[in-house]
Design goal:
Elements (H helix, E strand, L loop, with lengths): L2 E3 L18 E6 L1 H4 L3 E5 L7 E3 L20 E8 L5 E2 L14 E5 L16 E2 L1 H10 L3 E4 L10 H8 L3 E4 L13 E7 L6 E10 L3
Parallel strand pairs: 5-7, 6-8, 7-9, 9-10
Antiparallel strand pairs: 1-12, 2-3, 4-10, 4-12, 5-11, 11-12
Length: 206
């Protein structure tokens, strides 16, 4: 069984969306001083690999604690969108996307993680967002910080339809080696509009 971890580690000082609070992991207790370790985390829910719930940018009031875990697990569909500044419907027309699938967009943008260029990322078109809504997918996954830029029209289209958005994935190139895979995108069960998450793919075997 092959498992590919698509998540960044959560670390003090890790990259965050411009203007967001910095991540800090504080060692409350240490082995040397206390005989055990205890840490606290200060972070927004949009740092590193995370999932946006419908309430993030829409009038849909579903918080992450309300999301059924069935919506976080599904058959993965990989879309190779490298070298595309605008990812449009033509990028997915040759893909057999079914209701309930989780569509992962490989843009190659993860190579810019931790640099200023990371925030100048490609975008999904509004036409593609509408197409994915019609397909009734569960979630999209992105190896970049967002599917669009302000005023976030793609976020609004997907979230109004209840489609989740997993952002800041990594290692998506490794999915090219798999014939078929399932995606597990497991968020914290938190009363918030998003959640830090562990996202991974598991190869399907015959």
């Amino acid at each position: 069984m092959k498992i590919i971890d698509l998540s960044y580690p959560i670390e003090t000082g890790m990259p965050v969306y411009p203007g967001d609070t910095e991540v800090n992991i504080h060692n409350e207790r240490t082995w040397e001083a206390d005989g055990f370790r205890l840490s606290s985390l200060h972070s927004t829910m949009h740092a590193g690999t995370h999932i946006d719930a419908p309430s993030h940018i829409s009038d849909n009031n579903v918080m992450m604690k309300d999301v059924d875990l069935c919506r976080c697990i599904g058959t993965g569909v990989l879309v190779d969108a490298r070298n595309k500044n605008i990812i449009d419907v033509e990028c997915v027309q040759n893909k057999d996307i079914k209701a309930g699938d989780i569509v992962i967009f490989l843009t190659g943008w993860a190579k810019h993680y931790s640099t200023s260029q990371y925030d100048d990322h490609p975008v999904l078109s509004e036409a593609l967002a509408e197409y994915l809504v019609l397909k009734k997918i569960k979630m999209i996954g992105l190896d970049m910080p967002s599917c669009d830029h302000e005023p976030y029209p793609v976020h609004r289209i997907l979230m109004k339809a209840g489609i989740l958005i997993a952002e800041n994935l990594c290692n998506c190139e490794s999915l090219l080696d798999l014939k078929a895979f399932d995606v597990y995108a497991i968020p914290l069960k938190i009363d918030a509009e998003a959640a830090l998450a562990r996202v991974f793919a598991k190869e399907k075997t015959a």
